[in-house]
Write a structure and sequence with these properties.
It contains no helices and 39 strands. The chain is an all-beta fold and about 400 residues long. It has two domains: about 325 residues, Methylamine Dehydrogenase, Chain H, CATH 2.130.10.10; about 70 residues, Sandwich (Immunoglobulin-like). Strands 1-2-3-32-31-30 form a six-stranded antiparallel beta sheet, with no helix packed on it. A hairpin with a 2-residue loop joins strand 20 and strand 21.
Amino acid sequence: MKKTLFFLLLGSNLLSFSQLQVSTLNLTTNDLVYDSVTNKIYASIPSANGANGNSIGIINPNTVTLENTVFMGSEPTVLAISDNGQYIYSGFTGSSTIRRFDVATQTAGLQFSLGSDPFFGAFYAQDIEVMPGFPNTIAVSRKRPNVSPTHGGIAIYDNNIMRPTTTPDHTGSNVFEFIDSNSLVGYNFESTEYGLRRMSVNAGGITNISVNANVLTGFFIDFIYKNNTVYATNGTVVDISSSPFVVGQFSNATGPVVYDNYYNKVCYASYGTGSLTFKRFNPTTFLLSDSLPITQTFGNAKSLITCGNGCYAFNTTDNKVIIIKDSTLGSVDTELKYKIHFYPNPTKDYLFVDTEVEIKEIKIFDINGRSINNLNFESNSMYLGNIEKGIYLAKITDINGNTTTEKIIKN
């Protein structure tokens, strides 16, 4: 086994273990998501954090600082981000609502009620997922806190309009993931049925197709989905390409899980008896690739995300956000050291740039990385009236060769 070097830098919150570096931000949070365009982590911050509670917090993973907070509502909890980075949706425990956060404008927007059960009261969001390719459409696993089981079925919402057909309550899918825009996989962790469900989505709503009991087992188990495979928070690996079956087990992996597309690893913030360890596994052999003890926290991990290539973040029950970075990966761009502002953003025609230094070049790309040609940047402005509506990336290079990338929206 390759030996690694372990040392503590005195007077710093930085810990190095081989190539992995750990930084800590003291912040009370419920959930985390990441937007690759803004290169920011977005956190749901409850009122327990103090004056800036009941908000979405914007965290810079490079500087490990909370840059801003935006008020969202009473006790924000679960978050979900659209695959194009346009919207973040938040559920709440203080209100029976969903609210949408616009990433480009950094503002709280559309808010709507989840309604109520005529016998058991208001619905609250237990899990939220945004439909792939459709940033205005979400699926919500609803719960009723004063009922056992709490599950109130999954519903599909287009903006604030619910499609009429929902899945049944009680025995259903507390947590779920989209397979594609027409199908989902979900898991029931509130009864000993332990059902792993396939669900279908159409214009009328959502329906159960099949259920397989006891493939996954355990209360309050969550999972992620990748390439016809379910990776569960208890370390179980399930193939769902046909009838679900267990294909492997990650040893001593218990905690939130994320798939690292850059390194092709399955990562866990794994907690044991009084300790927490960050682990990366091979998704094919199920063998441990590396393991990093996390000594900066005494709590358990709550959610785990990637935050760029070689970057991971999770929040803890003792009110910390832990950011882990692979120090062997250098940044592709030399980031600008000053503020740059596009306006108006969103825009219908002209996009203007306000900055402190001369801009050499601006290149526009669509969200798939394709360059948009025949756009001329002159006199700190660019005409976008002849391109389609949508979200684009603007890569800016100044006269000193420094670069940065910003998100723009064409209406």
